[in-house]
Design brief:
- An eight-stranded parallel beta barrel has the order 1-2-3-4-5-6-7-8, surrounded by four helices.
- The protein has 222 residues and is an alpha/beta fold.
- Helix 1 packs parallel to helix 2 and helix 1 runs parallel beside helix 8.
- The longest helix is centred in the first third of the chain and has 18 residues.
- It is 37% helix and 18% strand.
- It starts with a strand and ends with a helix.
- It binds 2-phosphoglycolic acid.
- 2-phosphoglycolic acid (PGA) binds next to strand 8.
């Protein structure tokens, strides 16, 4: 069985109470599944929930990892509002970098994203680099790319599995990346059409990761 990353991107959602409920419900579901085999499950909450997620994963004995949704391009220092890699590393193993919402709403450029990849690496975080374009030059130091066409995100209209497979193959051919995931309107019903493609190594899930039932079903069917 090939290794698969199944990533929950909570975006700007959830309170402390809602996070506790999510993990409680998730624990019941996941323990029903038994062995997760080659599935690497990563939860990416908003920054203030990182320590709580770490505590709850430990408490419920879940074989899950944690990722941040962003990272400062700088190391610690006088950068008001920034969250640096050293702090993130206390809680997380992964960092999403370059999500299309960061590019669109926060003006993040490829140059800035390359710096963020460098900082993530410097602090031992594995970047999960998002791109909407198959032609984008993926920065050095990225092993995991998530291909997410903008029109597929949150729209209920995913890319076709055939096109996603072709893009994943292209990205691997043109860059030295090891894993390409697909993201954009992934659900429990369609996940398997993507995960079964030979060049696709998992999925990045937004909306459907907010419900523990839906996300557990995605893990199960991937
Ligand atoms: P979606 O979001 O699953 O809600 O389409 C995916 C993403 O933005 O990563």
């Amino acid at each position: 069985m090939k290794k698969q990353y199944i990533i929950a991107n909570w975006k700007s959602h959830k309170t402390v109470d809602e996070t506790e409920e999510w993990f409680e419900d998730m624990a019941l579901k996941v323990h029903e599944f038994g062995d997760l085999e080659e599935k690497v499950i990563i939860v990416c909450p908003p920054f203030p929930l990182l320590p709580i997620c770490k505590k709850l994963i430990h408490q419920h004995k879940l074989p899950f990892f944690i990722g941040s949704q962003d990272i400062s391009p700088f190391a610690e220092g006088a950068y008001t509002g920034a969250v640096d890699g050293k702090l993130i590393r206390e809680f997380a193993d992964y960092a999403i970098i370059g999500h299309s919402e960061r590019r669109k709403y926060f003006g993040e450029t490829p140059e800035l994203l390359a710096e963020k990849v460098g900082t993530a690496r410097a602090f031992g975080l594995q970047p999960i680099y998002c791109t909407a374009e198959k032609e984008e030059k993926i920065p050095v130091g990225v092993d995991i790319v998530a291909y997410e066409p903008v029109t597929a995100i949150g729209s209920g209209h995913p890319d076709s599995p055939e096109n996603a497979e072709a893009v994943a193959g292209f990205l691997k051919q043109k860059n030295s990346v090891l894993y390409v995931l697909y993201g954009g309107s992934v659900t429990a019903t369609n996940v398997n059409q993507f995960s079964e493609q030979s060049s696709i190594n998992g999925v990045l899930v937004g909306g459907a990761s907010l419900s523990p039932q839906d996300f557990a079903a995605i893990i199960h069917h991937a």
